[in-house]
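Researcher: First entry.
Model:
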Amino acid sequence: MSMAALFRGYRNFYKRSNKHVELSLVSYRSMASKTPVGFIGLGNMGTPMARNLLKHGYPVIATDVFPESFKDLQDSGAQILDCPAEVADKADRIITMLPSSPNVIEVYTGPNGILKKVKKGTLLIDSSTIDPAVSREMAIAAEKMGAVFMDAPVSGGVGAASLAKLTFMVGGVEEEFNAAQELLTSMGANAVYCGQVGSGQGLIQD
C-alpha cells in the first residue's frame, strides 16, 4: 500500500473519530441539561412554573414553607424537601419565586437558606419581584460562596405562568444568560437580557 493511501485512510478514520467525539459531546450536553432543577416558592405563580419545567423533562426538587402548597406538584412528579438548604445540596440550578424582599433574604441567607449548602458554580435565578438593591445584595452573597445569582422577574400573571407565556427580564452576568435562558424559556415565551444584576427588577418596576 502506498504512503498516499495510508494517509487517506488515516484522514478518513480521524474524521469519523472526530465526528463521533462531537456527537458524544452534544449528547452529553443534552443529558446534562436535564439534571435536577431546584424550585423554591410554590405559590400561585411558582407551582405552574415548576410544573412547566417537569413538562419539559427537567426533574424538579422543590420546597415551600406551606406544606399544603406542594401536594399537586408532588403528584406531578416533583421531589419535595424540607428546606432551601436541602434543595441547594441536591441541585446546581435553582429558581426562586417568592412574595417579597424579606422572603428572598430569608430563603437565601437564613439559617436553612440556600447559601448554607450551595455548591460552587450553582446558578441561582430569582423570579420574585423585589427591591433591585436586594437582588444586588444576594448576588454579592452568592458570589462569596462561588455561586452565580441572576434576577429574572416576570411580566405576566397566573394565566401566563400556566400557559408558559411569561416574559422574563433578566439581570446578571451576561456569560450566564444562555444557561438561564434554557430554563426560563421552558416556563415562558421570552427571556430578555437587561444588563447587570438588578436590571431586570428595575425594568419590571418602572
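Researcher: Second entry.
Model:
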Amino acid sequence: MPKLKTKRAAAKRFKVTGTGKLKRSKAYKRHILTKKTTKNKRNLRKATTVDASNVKTMKKVLPYL
C-alpha cells in the first residue's frame, strides 16, 4: 500500500498539542476590522481547538501529524 499524502494546505494551518488535540487560528481577522470592537479582535488572536465533529476528517487529511 502506498504512503498517504499529507494535505500541505492543512499542515500549514493546524498544529498538534501535547495532548493530541488539533490547534487552529480563528477566522475573521484579515480585513474589515474597523467595525469590530477591540475586545472582539483581541479574542480573535487566541488560538482554539478543532471541534470534535471535524477531528475524524482532519485525521484523514493529516495522517502523520
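Model: Note on the second entry: The radius of gyration is 15 Å.
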